[in-house]
Amino acid sequence: MVPSQTLVCAAVLALAVLQALASDTFIAAVYEHAVILPRTIHKVSPADALALMNRNMDVLEGAVKEAAQQGARIIVTPEDGIYGWVFTRETIYPYLEDIPDPEVNWIPCTDPTRFGRTPVQERLSCMARNNSIYVVANIGDKKPCNSSDPKCPSDGRYQYNTDVVFDSEGKLVARYHKYNLFMSEANYFNYPKEPEVITFETPFGKFGIFTCFDILFREPAVVLVSKLQVDTVLFPTAWMNVLPFLTAVEFHSAWAMGMGVNFLASNTHNTIMSMTGSGIYAPDGAKGYYYNMKTEDGHLLIAELDSHPRLSAASPPAVTWNSNASNVESCLPDDNDFSGLIFHDKFTFTELTKPEGNLTVCQKDLHCHLSYKMAEKREDEVYVLGAFDGLHVVEGQYYLQICTLLKCKSTDLSTCGQPAETAQTKFAMFSLSGTFGTNYVFPEVLYSGVQLAPGEFEVLKDGRLISKTAPTKPVVTVTLFGRWYEKDPLK
């Protein structure tokens, strides 16, 4: 046999082995962690910083062991989950380590001093190796620089909010520097010079990773899914819930459905900061989620997912988001329409004055159409249909198109758009659609008490978000949340 034939046979054999080892499904875990925070806002010694991080990693290691014992192949832990979030550029420095490029082929658990002092990476690596599970964590990276780099900070180093992934042997297989920093983060972390698009392959699918605020922007989030075709997104986050559209479980489950991917979201748990809401989401709905504003306890979620959701029979069909609403009569000015604010954005609203009906409300080029029937029209609750088509400019700038059916905080129409967490009105049916100019639309249904509605709604090919059966719980909001990335301001 000639050498080239030997290589071909070896390659075929290797491919056959990989296919045999590949899994159609896998068990995933996420852990919502009540982070132990620093006791001081002042700079501490490296020893004191490590002591705090070890206290948090003690908790995380318990979750890793439990997840592995239940068969999980991968576990995601939260953003800021090892040291917290109240820092300045100087006070966070003792918590940072030099995190190398994964191309160096490094297992910190077996070679901890190869890149200097890296006790956090060593411990995370050993958690993965000792439990034969992929471990995803969020830590801080530091990179020295000097005057030859015109963008080098005055203290001679870059500091990055960083996600790391260790495989089941403890090897560092992914490192991601957060690109879209949220507000005060920029006081102690640097923006990467370019957005990073990080993927890695496993026997149970292709994975991508990004962090928290990144989800609202095209890079890296949309690029990972639309261009690089990952199967599952890993999402460490420190998400502060904002009703009516941006509670963690509500938006993250909608993003998974809208993008057609698995989504493993691990949130920090701090009720004072309105931080809770983790989940294991698939394109056809939540497989498991956790939302708890009553206690300060952490929580482990475990669920089974398809390794390649796009190939699954349960994968939702492609949607033409403006198809149905474009066939509805154009809007005419209506004296009953009124304006209201939702998270600083000026919506146009119209009230649902009857127990059932068909309504249309418009703003700019967005026409939102609703067909509905209430199980009972209550006198003590008011619902509206709302539309927003414009640039959101608070805590970042990004272009939105939103159609929403939502409950007002009270019967006073001036409260429409203010956070309302509970409701008593049930709907026998609803159908919501809009003339969206974007293909990126995320369908949300939120029940009273911030509860999701997996299996109780679907999106049709023509862009209608409809109830599959009579909703089982009172409705807080039914929303089509559109992101028009092409209209975002240039950075």
Description of the molecule:
The chain is α+β, with helices and mostly antiparallel strands and 491 residues long. It is 17% helix and 32% strand. The strands form four sheets. A six-stranded mixed beta sheet has the order 5-4-3-2-1-12. The protein is globular. The relative contact order is 0.11. Residues 1-21 have low confidence and may be disordered.
Give the strand line-up of the largest sheet: 5-4-3-2-1-12
The major pleated sheet works out as: 6 strands, mixed
Q: Decide which structural class fits the backbone.
A: alpha+beta
Unreliable sequence segments: 1-21
Q: What is the count of β-strands?
A: 23
- Proportion of residues in β-strands: 25-35%
Helix and strand pattern: HEHEHEEEEEHEHEEEEHEEEEEEEEEEE
**Overall 3D shape:** globular
Give helix % range.
10-25%
The value of Rg in angstroms is: 24 Å
Mean pLDDT value: 94
> Tally the helices: what do you get?
6
Distance, first to last CA: 58 Å
GO biological process, one term: pantothenate metabolic process
Keywords: Glycoprotein, Hydrolase, Signal
Family: Belongs to the carbon-nitrogen hydrolase superfamily. BTD/VNN family.
Protein name: Vanin 2
